[in-house]
Amino acid sequence: MGTDTVRALRAALGCEDAAVRQVGPGHHRLAVPDEHGNGDRGEHRNGHGAGAGFTVDVLGDERSAHRVLHLLPGGGLNVDADYCTARGRSLARYFADHGYLVIGTTPREDALTPERIGPRCAGWGLDGHRADLERVIAAAESVTGLPYELLGHSAGAALALATAARSVGSGLRRVLVLDTTGPYDPRREPESVARAEALTDLLQQQLDAGGWTVDPGLKGLFARAAADPDAPSGLPRPVDGAAPFSNLGLLHYALTNTRDLPGPANWIHHRGHSTGSYRFGATPAEDRFALTHTPLAVWQEAVARLGSGLQPTALLRDLAAVWAGRTETHAIEWSAIRADVVWLNAEFGRGDHGLGARLIGRGGAKVDYRVVPDYGHGDVVWSATAERDVWGLLLPPR
Fold this sequence. Notes:
By secondary structure, the chain is of the alpha/beta class. The strands form 4 sheets. The chain has a 9-stranded mixed sheet, with helices on both faces. The chain has a two-stranded antiparallel ribbon with strand order 8-13. The chain has helices at about 5-10, 80-85, 90-95, 125-145, 155-165, 190-210, 220-225, 245-255, 295-305, 315-325, 355-360, 380, 385-390, and strands at about 20-25, 25-30, 55-60, 65-70, 100-105, 150-155, 170-180, 215, 230-235, 240-245, 275-280, 290, 310, 340-345, 365-370.
């Protein structure tokens, strides 16, 4: 793909002076400025806009594409980290190779710097993210005239579903969901509903107190493990309260046993971000651990590509409200989704909670809901075997 499509997209977004950067073969990145004109000049080290606008990645060839695929990254991630990182072929490249024009929208929080965190972040809930995405969808439709699909991972999948419920334009064909949590079933999962309700209230309290963003801590974990892997982390191992994990041990435990670590939302994982093993030894130095699907080097590369790594508190509040069914805080009208939906959850990530998929199906849409065995939350996008086990299930039937 040349730059003509990107330039046309830039014009359709109303930011003709915004910077366009080639980041790889057939891969261009457009930094869309914020409402105050920031974000169109300088860039972060990773090539994302330095202001608090959003960023659009474009891969593929419009001349041969049969559809547009909009990629929506998970919370705290960007398109580059979530969809363009892999040991072999990335998910973004996989779909471009299958005839899609791939357009990924990285949300505003990725470009946040400490001095730019403030009250406006309170507007960056699901509705704020959807407004930016709808801008990109409308621009892509005007430039290409092609039908489109939405593919989201984690929080990005919830955004895809929320956007589909609004029936943006007439060109939406399918919604592709990778490991996200819909509403918990109040009859079968009342404890999860109660925890999600408590989390919604907690996050609203944080917003009311001026807590605009949340740092999930991944960047710090990886940085400490790289700088001094054998040093004590400060977090006691569950088998020996007097002996803390090493920095590298804690990183592996956080990836494979996320649910067991402190944190208000870690309980949503059935096990963790990545499938693997952790065997405690007599001392932290004798602990043995490994990852099953996603190599640690791929995790390291993905984290290295992050911008701020922050998550807006408003977005997390809205997600928790969706899990709890707190429609007065945020509601997705599941029965309004008319496009076909392929919903793939990871067994050890978000697990088997199919109420959202069932509600969509009751509205008349075609839904293919499955749980991928032995995969963690991040494995569905980064595993060396995801192309075989997961991504092929997302392609349209021939």
